[in-house]
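(Structure overview)
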Amino acid sequence: MSQSVLLQTALFLPAPEVEALIRGQIIVAMPRKFIHPGQRFALYPANVSINLLPNEQHYRSNFLPVVQNFIGNLSTETVLIKSWAKCELCQMLNAPESLEALSRLTIWTTEVFQQTLVQKPYIFLAFLRVHLLPEPQEITVQHQSGHFLPLPNSLTVSEANPVLNDRTFAQRKRQLEKLEPPLHPELEELQSAIASLAISQPAAKQLDDDIKVFLGWSSDKLIKQTDANLAWINDIAKLGDRSIELEERKTNYLAGTDFENVVRDSLELLGFTIDYAHKGGAGGLDLFCSKPYPLFGECKAGRKIPNDTAVQLLNLGMLRRPDLFNQAAKLIIGPGEPTTQLQDAAKIQGMAIIKPETLQKLVKLQSNHRNSVDLFKLKEYLKAGQSDEEVEKYIDQVYTDISLRSQIITAVKELSEQDNETSKPIHPSFTVTEIRVHYNATHNPRLNDEVVHDLLIELSSPLTGYLGRIKGSDWNSDRFYFLRDLLIN
């Protein structure tokens, strides 16, 4: 259980800088005076007018959207205190040659550091371990520009809700102390570009959250597409066999339409582009996907698939898109075991048949592990005739591939924990051979260095962000370190 702490003071900081600390975008503040390590205090978000320079010169360009947002939302009467911090370290800096590197790792411009050194002999840089309060505390605006200010009422807090976990904070602290360059400056620019969109658009917020995880600004796990908007995934099989028809007394037509709609949603989530000119209905083609390759589909809700379904798909496909039909993928989705007559017709016409349950498994895989379904590889498993078994082989293979990557990540994590236990430097990194030896000691199949290196490069990409990479002079001297787990769903 986290120990309770009584706070009686707050550190006076510009509001955007407090927000950057809460977001995990920075782990340092520039207090006016030295702060003793171990000291704890609330964070008071003050008006930005206390800054030395205009905002455009005070903050780096990729942080200005946050600043602009706060300028328009600051109250003149009350302040919300959302967080508190413990000072882990306070440095006094006065080396001009380090200012540019420091700027790249924070939200401040080189100019503001230079201006500070004109006025004072040192820049105070406090490393703050920030924690969120269970509930924001509203207090009256304090009209002062001091260092610390007394809180009107003491706050009892705990360390139960840190912004960053221990490992992430230690890695960030080491990077700042050694002034190592940012790992992914291009992703920082992307995050800045979508920050304002993330306020109002859920898709942008999801991407924004994921990028923060990649950058180490957040120790949360990646956002998964398992929210209420995707609850329909669990109904794919039910809509296919029409068990829902009995519950809701739907007509055959409405039940069939519901199934067509959920199949379209499923294929879109898998990555297909649906041509909505084909919406099924009486005498219509149920679905046509134009990208990444042409796919014609027929949906049959009910207890079994009618014998003439393959002929129906052939006729409708040739009628609507004769230029594409012969070379396109063809898919029939419906419940039950197809008759011998339907199987034979599907094999002759090159049509795959799958059950709604199989489609549901595919969609769940894609939902739990985004972009894990390769549609071109999936196409190879859509064999003519009943192909549920083949598609399930593909699903199993994807999970096997994901599991292998998770095991490689775990190997790096275990090596890191061993190093921490022996008091070696924080933020340990390892060669390909070290990782391969540790992995092979406990896992099958045994892998060679070349295969392990390929996997490590993939997992340390900025678009995956499970591992970090320190590039060497050749691939044998590359080093890798742990960032976050890959959970198997």
